[in-house]
C-alpha cells in the first residue's frame, strides 16, 4: 500500500513557519505583508477558492486587499485596478483569479501585474524565465511548487527520475513539467492528443496528474512504487452528500493507492499546499520589497 501524503498536515507545518516570518517582519520593520486578491464575476468555484485564500491570509497575519469586480467589467477598468495595486506600497502580492470572463484577454491582464508582485508566477516573463536554463523567475507558480514541495518533503528524489506530467495548461501542467526539468528529471508530457497515455504513464517514477478528468488514471496505469501527485479537483454528482457533489482527483485513488509508493488524496493533497505556497510567495515578496525600500 502507498504512503498517503497528507497535504493538509504539511501545509500546517509550513503555515506556522510563515506565521513566524510575518511576526519577524512586523517586529523589525513595523510592516505586515499584503496580498491583493482580484476576482471578476461570481463563479461559485472561484468565489470558494478566493474565500480560502482570504481566510488563510487572516490566520497568518497577512493583510488581504479584496477587489471584487462585476462580470461585465471592461478589460481597461480591470487593468486600471491592477495598476493601482502595482503602486500601492502596502500590497506586496497581486493575484487575479482565473478564469476571467471571455471578453477579457487573460494574458494582457497578467502582463500588467508588476513582476515584483506576481505571486502567482503567471506573468509571461516569469514563465519564460522558468523555461530557461540558468534563469530563475522571482516567483514560482503555486500549484507546481506545491507538487515539488510535497515530493521533497516525502523524501522522493527527482534527479534522474522519469517523470510524466498529464496536462499542459499555463497554470499547472506546463510549469510543473518545467520545474521537474529544472530538478533534473527526464520529463514527458501527456495531453489530450497523446495516444496510449497508459503505457507512457506506466513508465513513470513520478506522475503529476493535472488533466481535470475525474479518475481517468487507473491503478494498472501506475508503475509499482511510483510517486503520484494528483492535482485534479473535479466535482462529481453524489446524492449521498448534502451538497449533492464530492471532489475527486484525476487518479482513481482506491486502485492507485494499492500500486503506488506515494500518493496524494483529493481533497487534502495538493489543494491546501497551493494556498500555502501563495502565502509563502507573498511573504517572500514582502520581505524583498520592504528590505529594498527601507
Ligand atoms: N489543487 C490545486 O491547487 C489546483 C487544482 N486544479 C485542478 O487541476 C486540473 C487541471 O487544471 P488546469 O490545468 O487549469 O486545466 P485545463 O483544462 O486548463 O488543462 C487541462 C489539460 O489536461 C489535458 N487533458 C484534458 N483531457 C485529457 C485527457 N483525457 N488525457 C490527457 N490529457 C488531457 C489538456 O490537454 P490539451 O492541452 O490538449 O487540451 C490540458 O492540457 C483541474 O481538475 C483543476 O480543477 C487546478 C489548479 C490548482
Ligand atoms: N490566479 C489563480 N491562481 C490560482 O492558484 C488558481 C486560479 N487562479 N484559478 C483556479 C485554480 C484552482 N486553485 C485551487 C486552489 C486551492 C484548492 C484547494 O484548496 N482545494 C481543497 C478542497 C477545497 C474544497 O473543499 O472545495 C483540497 O484539495 O483539499 C483547489 C484549487 C487555484 N487556482
From TrEMBL:
<dbReference type="InterPro" id="IPR046346">
    <property type="entry name" value="Aminoacid_DH-like_N_sf"/>
</dbReference>
<comment type="function">
    <text>Catalyzes the oxidation of 5,10-methylenetetrahydrofolate to 5,10-methenyltetrahydrofolate and then the hydrolysis of 5,10-methenyltetrahydrofolate to 10-formyltetrahydrofolate.</text>
</comment>
<dbReference type="InterPro" id="IPR000672">
    <property type="entry name" value="THF_DH/CycHdrlase"/>
</dbReference>
<dbReference type="GO" id="GO:0035999">
    <property type="term" value="P:tetrahydrofolate interconversion"/>
</dbReference>
<dbReference type="GO" id="GO:0009853">
    <property type="term" value="P:photorespiration"/>
</dbReference>
<dbReference type="GO" id="GO:0004477">
    <property type="term" value="F:methenyltetrahydrofolate cyclohydrolase activity"/>
</dbReference>
<dbReference type="GO" id="GO:0005829">
    <property type="term" value="C:cytosol"/>
</dbReference>
<protein>
    <submittedName>
        <fullName>Bifunctional protein FolD 2</fullName>
        <ecNumber>1.5.1.5</ecNumber>
    </submittedName>
</protein>
<keyword id="KW-0554">One-carbon metabolism</keyword>
<comment type="similarity">
    <text>Belongs to the tetrahydrofolate dehydrogenase/cyclohydrolase family.</text>
</comment>
<keyword id="KW-0521">NADP</keyword>
<keyword id="KW-0601">Photorespiration</keyword>
<dbReference type="GO" id="GO:0004488">
    <property type="term" value="F:methylenetetrahydrofolate dehydrogenase (NADP+) activity"/>
</dbReference>
<dbReference type="InterPro" id="IPR020867">
    <property type="entry name" value="THF_DH/CycHdrlase_CS"/>
</dbReference>
<dbReference type="InterPro" id="IPR036291">
    <property type="entry name" value="NAD(P)-bd_dom_sf"/>
</dbReference>
<dbReference type="InterPro" id="IPR020631">
    <property type="entry name" value="THF_DH/CycHdrlase_NAD-bd_dom"/>
</dbReference>
<keyword id="KW-0378">Hydrolase</keyword>
<dbReference type="InterPro" id="IPR020630">
    <property type="entry name" value="THF_DH/CycHdrlase_cat_dom"/>
</dbReference>
<keyword id="KW-0560">Oxidoreductase</keyword>
<feature type="domain" description="Tetrahydrofolate dehydrogenase/cyclohydrolase NAD(P)-binding">
    <location>
        <begin position="141"/>
        <end position="288"/>
    </location>
</feature>
<feature type="domain" description="Tetrahydrofolate dehydrogenase/cyclohydrolase catalytic">
    <location>
        <begin position="5"/>
        <end position="120"/>
    </location>
</feature>
<dbReference type="Pfam" id="PF00763">
    <property type="entry name" value="THF_DHG_CYH"/>
</dbReference>
<comment type="pathway">
    <text>One-carbon metabolism; tetrahydrofolate interconversion.</text>
</comment>
<comment type="subunit">
    <text>Homodimer.</text>
</comment>
<keyword id="KW-0511">Multifunctional enzyme</keyword>
<dbReference type="Pfam" id="PF02882">
    <property type="entry name" value="THF_DHG_CYH_C"/>
</dbReference>
Amino acid at each position: 500500500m502507498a504512503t498517503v501524503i497528507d497535504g493538509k498536515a504539511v501545509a500546517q507545518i509550513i503555515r506556522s513557519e510563515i506565521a513566524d516570518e510575518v511576526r519577524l517582519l512586523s517586529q523589525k520593520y513595523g510592516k505586515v505583508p499584503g496580498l491583493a486578491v482580484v476576482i471578476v464575476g461570481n463563479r461559485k468555484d472561484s468565489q470558494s477558492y478566493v474565500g480560502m485564500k482570504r481566510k488563510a491570509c487572516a490566520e497568518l497575519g497577512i493583510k488581504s486587499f479584496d477587489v471584487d469586480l462585476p462580470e461585465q467589467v471592461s478589460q481597461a477598468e480591470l487593468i486600471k485596478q491592477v495598476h493601482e495595486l502595482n503602486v500601492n506600497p502596502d500590497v506586496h502580492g497581486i493575484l487575479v483569479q482565473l478564469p476571467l470572463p471571455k471578453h477579457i484577454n487573460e494574458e494582457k491582464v497578467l502582463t500588467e501585474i508588476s513582476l515584483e508582485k506576481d505571486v502567482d508566477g503567471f506573468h509571461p516573463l516569469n514563465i519564460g524565465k522558468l523555461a530557461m536554463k540558468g534563469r530563475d523567475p522571482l516567483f514560482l507558480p503555486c500549484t507546481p511548487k506545491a507538487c515539488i514541495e510535497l515530493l521533497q518533503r516525502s523524501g522522493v528524489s527527482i534527479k534522474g527520475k522519469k517523470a510524466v506530467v498529464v496536462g499542459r495548461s499555463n497554470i499547472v501542467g506546463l510549469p510543473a513539467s518545467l520545474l521537474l526539468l529544472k530538478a533534473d528529471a527526464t520529463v514527458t508530457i501527456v495531453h489530450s492528443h497523446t495516444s496510449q497515455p497508459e503505457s507512457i504513464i506506466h513508465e513513470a517514477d513520478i506522475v503529476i496528474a493535472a488533466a481535470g478528468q475525474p479518475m481517468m488514471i487507473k491503478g494498472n496505469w501506475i508503475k509499482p512504487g511510483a510517486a503520484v501527485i494528483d492535482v485534479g479537483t473535479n466535482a462529481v454528482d453524489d446524492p449521498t452528500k448534502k451538497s449533492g457533489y464530492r471532489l475527486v482527483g484525476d487518479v482513481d485513488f482506491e486502485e492507485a493507492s494499492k500500486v503506488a509508493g506515494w500518493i496524494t488524496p483529493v481533497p487534502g493533497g495538493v489543494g491546501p499546499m497551493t494556498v500555502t505556497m501563495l502565502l509563502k510567495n507573498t511573504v517572500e515578496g514582502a520581505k524583498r520589497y520592504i528590505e529594498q525600500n527601507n
